[in-house]
Design brief:
It contains 19 helices and 52 strands. With 883 residues, the protein is of the alpha+beta class. Helix 4 packs antiparallel against helix 5 and helix 7 crosses helix 8.
């Protein structure tokens, strides 16, 4: 069929678009109507499919369901399709799952199978959302496994919904009413008749009760169907429905309960001979109890959630008052994220490295013995609020002897609990190579791609480990694939022994590094950012960067695991992670870092604030480049927060030259002579003034000429005084810069240049009505104004505007929800006193007073209300000082 109507059920996300565009799909869906904000009811949006069709390796079917006596009934039926993958979409009504028969959505992405083997499962459900759901769908489809997505109404337009073969809406945006609702997820499992359930990470992935429910589930087996274009034939000899057990694609519920609980896991680790951190081996019952333990073991201490991970529900405390505050916040976050508010307290190891060992284990069906694959360690020490930002493998800190002993202890722990599936054992390693068990994450880690990319012969060879595939095979009972077992280095060479040996380590090649990209504002304390993703462009999969040794160019392989598409609305309901960018170099760490930096320069995100500027600055840090990356790295290098990276003076002048040539190209192609060139008396040497930071920023005088080969030679000097005339005495020492290439079109978002002997990519954000050009170089945004010398003389008479004084107001630093006020009108507050709590993306943020002795004159807003960024929360009485 050339076109079909699509209907998608939307609720409450206020999508300013209805456009389904997948970065990995040849098909584009264009909206024929626009959906406006509809906070409480559903809206229907019609769209049409473009003329390009999907090509699939097999016929795919949808299913229908009906409601009878308030009970959900499911009966598989076939839909006559041969070249298009459809999604069956279900919706929630009065807390009951309902099927919408008109809601047939072509999947925006289909994967061709890379395996001729019988798939470990026929159909699985992914109990998650975002980039990890897409990651699992990709691996499943590559191995001929059909997929079912679940989603909340806030995620109705999310890519993971479109990419799956089927999708079930399980509730409203709140996680507790959707992704964390075990009953609803289990109803979706029953409805779709899946053979397995993959939990991803977060949400219910480490919930032993959920895993146990899944393990006990029995569903109707859906027989294979063959569609000959006219008639549908059931290939099963028995027309009666068969029953089958559902597999949890992860460790057993017993292993999750034992190891996922941080309190019990420490006891198990002690029994297995694993080094552990001093602390209290039990649940903390009150803030006073936490203070008592903290004083017993000595500060600093860490309060952490007994369940879950990801830096949620964690606080480092140095004093009794910090324990009181940390206990309250950690308890609330633990309940919100994991549905379990139990806490533990342990000694905080200062200035350590966070090192973890990836495990893939499974029972061998032939030998009936447990196969354990241990991978080379990951370094995950660049953390903010105990949430990882940058991960790499192998670690630049760990010695081979330490690695060998860590792996020995990891295998002892795995055998002790008979662990089967992918898992990660985390350690803290101090500067003396002493290491302490932190926890075992009984799930797939966010940072698993760095391990995959260096495993075996490396990502570039194609002979590496797909951890999701390994989990699927183990869960099906077939054990670890033989091709992965073949990657174990069984040699007795000195190098193997030095690298951990024992004949149970997967060999590795090269270096990989990953950056997590979050929707947060690094210039405002990394507070969450929400809104529509207006533009989204991913970097190339192959990048040539300078080698760290010879100066020649090496190739870096770039992988992007993402959960977003252009036009998608980033909501405040879930974790703010947008994507992960991974750079792999077969040769060296330095090359991998350079590749990641170049990839970030070519990663375009507009519409929400994000942490790319911060990550880019970390990658340029000298200590990071040299491998000094303790967990306190961010606190040491950014003690007052992130206010923006810094360019060297040479880089600033190079940026000036680039900006000047981009302006020339933009105005030249518009057949408009650049204003800055009007009045120039020299036909060969052109003279302009370029202001970095806008009209009132640093000014540079640029004299440039272009030779016959197209090389732009510029003399750049900084203007020092504020007089009307620009004299030779007003400028500092000149710097000569050659730019040999500029690849840029005014319609493009990027400019690629050859300057200073290296390639560089800049993002071009266009100019405003006064000609202010905005560029991004090395993650740093710059407002640039190019003027003629005469224009600059006149501009010096302009007075810089005075910013508005908001000292008597307290503003919400982020969009979110007002949880509580800690003061009332008429209260006199002290500096640093708690005023209120704002929750965004499930993180609670205490807003504190910036004034001492101020009187609260008015509280704005209501507890439970949604907030905009910079919305007034309260105001103080005006004083003589504030008049």
């Amino acid at each position: 069929m050339s076109s079909i109507k699509l209907f998608s059920i939307l609720r409450g996300v206020g999508a300013p678009y209805c456009q389904r565009i997948s970065r990995l799909s040849p098909s584009v869906y264009r909206a024929s109507s626009i959906v406006s904000n509809i906070p409480q009811e559903y809206s229907t949006c019609a769209a049409t499919k473009s003329s390009r069709q999907f090509s699939t390796a097999r016929t795919t079917y949808t299913s229908t369901s009906a409601i009878s006596n308030n009970q959900l009934q499911y009966s598989p039926t076939s839909l006559q399709t041969r070249h298009t993958v459809y999604t069956s979409t279900f919706a929630i009504s009065n807390n009951q799952l309902q099927y919408s028969p008109n809601s047939l959505q072509p999947s925006a992405r289909s994967f061709s199978s890379t395996s001729n083997d019988t798939p470990p499962f026929r159909k699985i459900l992914i109990a998650n959302r975002g980039e990890i759901a897409i990651r699992i769908i990709e691996s499943a489809h590559k191995h001929n496994i059909r997929t079912v997505a679940i989603y909340s109404t806030a995620d109705a337009n999310s890519p993971h919904v479109t990419l799956a073969n089927e999708a079930v809406c399980i509730g409203p945006p709140a996680s507790s009413d959707s992704y964390l609702d075990i009953d609803k997820v289990c109803k979706a499992i029953e409805l779709t008749g899946v053979e397995g359930v993959h939990p991803g990470y977060g949400f219910l992935s480490e919930n032993s009760h959920f895993a146990e429910r899944v393990e006990k589930m029995v569903v109707n087996e859906e027989p294979y169907k063959v569609d000959d274009g006219e008639n549908t034939t059931n290939t099963s000899d028995n027309s009666q429905e068969k029953k089958k057990k559902v597999k949890f694609i992860g460790p057993s519920s017993h292993a999750i309960e034992s190891l996922g609980d941080k309190i019990q896991s420490k006891l198990i680790a002690d029994e297995a001979g694993v080094s552990t951190i001093p602390g209290y081996n039990g649940e903390i019952t009150s803030p006073e109890h936490a203070i008592q333990i903290a004083n017993d073991i000595g500060y600093p201490i860490m309060i952490k959630a007994s369940s879950g991970g990801g830096g949620k529900g964690m606080r480092i405390c140095y004093t009794d008052p910090e324990v009181l505050e940390g206990y309250k916040l950690s308890k609330a976050e633990a309940l919100s994220f994991f549905g379990d508010d139990r806490l533990l307290v342990e000694k905080y190891v200062e200035d350590p490295h966070h090192i973890e060992i990836q495990v893939l284990s499974g029972m061998n069906p032939i030998t009936n013995e447990l196969d354990i694959l241990c991978f080379v360690e990951r370094e995950c020490s660049i953390q903010r609020r105990n949430q990882k930002v940058i991960e790499e493998s192998p670690s630049p800190h760990l010695l081979p002897s330490t690695r060998r002993e860590m792996i020995r202890q990891v295998k002892s722990l795995v055998r002790n609990v008979n662990y089967e599936s992918a898992g990660t054992v985390e350690f803290l390693v101090d500067k003396h190579q002493n290491f302490y068990f932190l926890e075992m994450n009984t799930r797939l880690q966010v940072e698993h791609p760095v391990t995959e990319m260096i495993s075996g012969d490396g990502y570039h060879s194609g002979n590496y480990v797909d951890l999701v595939h390994g989990m699927l095979e183990v869960a099906s009972g077939r054990g670890i694939p033989q091709k992965y077992l073949d990657l174990v280095d069984n040699s007795e060479s000195e190098e193997n022994i030095k690298d951990g040996g024992e004949g149970a380590n997967v060999r590795y090649t090269g270096h990989a590094i990953e950056a997590r990209i979050y929707a947060e504002d690094p210039f405002r304390g990394f507070l969450p950012s929400t809104g529509p993703l207006v533009k989204y462009v991913e970097p190339p999969s192959l990048l040539d960067v300078k080698s760290d040794s010879s100066g020649d160019e090496d190739t870096c392989h770039i992988r992007v695991d993402t959960g977003v598409v252009p036009g998608m609305v980033i909501t405040p309901h879930y974790d703010p992670i947008l994507s992960k960018i991974i750079s792999y170099s077969p040769t060296s760490r330095t090359t991998a870092i350079s590749g990641l930096g170049s990839a970030l320069d070519q990663y375009l995100l507009r519409g929400v604030q994000h942490n790319v500027p911060f990550v880019r600055d970390v990658l340029r840090n000298a200590d990071f480049m040299q491998g000094y990356t303790p967990t306190g790295f961010i606190g040491q290098h950014y003690p007052d927060g992130f206010s923006g990276g810094q360019l060297s003076e040479v880089e600033r002048r190079e940026l000036v030259v680039i900006a000047r040539e981009i302006v020339r190209r933009r105005e030249g192609l518009l057949k408009n002579p650049p204003l800055a060139l009007l009045g120039s008396d020299n036909d060969e040497v052109e003279e302009v003034v370029v202001c970095l930071g806008g009209m009132f920023g640093d000014a540079y005088l640029v004299r440039s000429s272009i030779d016959g080969a197209g090389v732009v030679s510029s003399c750049v000097t900084k203007i020092q005084n504020e007089e009307d005339e620009i004299e030779d005495d007003d400028i500092d020492e000149a710097q000569f810069i050659d730019m040999s290439e500029l690849d840029y079109e005014p319609s493009s978002d990027f400019a690629n240049v050859q300057i200073g002997g290296e390639s560089r990519a800049l993002q071009v954000h266009g100019d405003d009505e006064v000609g202010m050009l905005k560029l991004t170089m090395y993650g740093l945004d710059a407002d640039i104004l190019v003027m003629s010398p005469d224009e600059y003389k006149l501009a010096r008479h302009m007075e810089e505007p005075v910013p508005l004084d908001l000292g008597d107001f307290v503003l919400s630093p982020m969009p979110g929800t007002l949880i509580s006020f800690a003061v009332k009108e008429g209260d006199v507050v002290e500096l640093g006193q708690e005023l209120c709590v704002v929750e965004a993306m499930k993180m609670q943020n205490i807003i504190k007073s910036h004034k001492a002795g101020a009187t609260v004159s008015k509280l704005h807003g209501e507890v439970g209300a949604s907030l905009r960024a910079d919305e007034i929360l309260l105001e103080f009485e005006k004083t003589e000082d504030s008049e």
